[in-house]
From TrEMBL:
Domain Mos1 transposase HTH: 9-38
Record's protein name: Mariner Mos1 transposase
Entries under InterPro entries matching the protein: Mos1_HTH, WH-like_DNA-bd_sf
Pfam assignment, any one: HTH_48
Amino acid sequence: MSIYEPNSHHLREILIFCFNMKKSAAEAHRMLSNTYTNTVRLLLVKERVVNGLRTVILTSNWHRDGREKVFEDAELEALLDQDSCQNQEELARSLGVTQQAISKLFKVMGMIQKQGNWVPYELKPRDVNGVCLLVNSCLKSKDGKDFCIEL
């Protein structure tokens, strides 16, 4: 008597059956584990070993880090000194990083682009006073006290 070994196609059909029967993931897992306890474990181990060997063979000559390239603020500032009109995509291309990394760094540095040039973002005293006046007017109606002091 031979031992039946389900293949991945068979397991997919079982999962589709469980989905059509409105079974939850936990119920489907319970059904599969009760039925195919040892067989599925052996099959998964075999697949993992084979896939692991495939990935080792494919990636043996291919170096891939999971992290983005690390660069210094000085490199970015040097590029901005050369041409401050570059946008984030151009800067990312020249540094070899993603646009998101450049965007995060600009946020940390407190830089914004005004009229095509990257400049530090600083609130002027009149801007701070305007915000204080707005907040005070909103909160005065509630308790009658000033929320922040004007500069």
